[in-house]
Amino acid sequence: GDVVGSIGKNVFDVNSLVTQLNTVNEQIANIQIKGQSPNDLMDTRDQILKGLSNLTEISTTFDKWGRASVSIGDQQISKIFGSNLESTENTTTLSNVSSVKQVGDDFEVQIQIGGDTSNVKTVTMSSEEVKKFQEGTPVFVKMPENGSDPVVSDLTPAGIKTGAIGGHMNAIKEIDARVDDLSQYAKVVQHAFNTV
Q: What is the distance between the alpha carbons of residues 10 and 13, in angstroms, rounded to a whole number?
């Protein structure tokens, strides 16, 4: 529970930093185009990038105006820049699985869009599909353009291995392994007890 909440908070923080980065990128470009040097803004940009790298592994590229594009794996999470100064909003949002409940043969998977506890979408999955979406899992959600809720095909596990989010994911794996060990031990004890 607590670890899943921490992942949600970290995912929210990643998105908050990306929003700040998008704003700073715009300010940097607007000053560069006038032939001035936005050193303070570049320092701010670098601090934002450092904050992001503490939360998850990122790869960063810079354009000729000093704007930073950020990706996790092969998925860009910041605004997408054109060859000129234009940019387009990214429709993919780093989000997280906040709960998984079995309902009949299917599973209802709740996704906190952008890590926001007040923006939760429910996606119904089969027992096969749900294997990739355990509680806490960071996921990329491609929001449908028509404004409808996302479906399974809109979701991709983010596969984050490092930073605070990666550490929390490792903790969940470790806890699950310990619970399995305890279950096995309980079965052995029960069997031994029933044999006596």
A: 5
Length of the chain (residues): 196
Question: What pTM, to 2 d.p., does this model score?
Answer: 0.86
How crowded is residue 178: how many other Cβ atoms within 10 Å of its Cβ?
Answer: 10
Q: How many other CB atoms sit within 10 Å of the CB of residue 48? A: 22
pLDDT in tens, the chain (196 residues): 589 999 999 999 999 999 999 999 999 999 998 999 999 999 999 999 999 999 999 999 999 889 999 999 889 899 888 767 777 777 789 999 999 999 999 999 999 999 999 999 999 999 999 999 999 999 999 877 777 788 878 899 999 999 999 999 988 888 888 888 888 888 888 878 888 7
Q: Judge whether 59 and 51 are in contact, CB under 8 Å.
A: no
Judging by beta carbons within 10 Å of its beta carbon (0-12, 13-18, 19+), is residue 99 exposed, middle or buried? middle
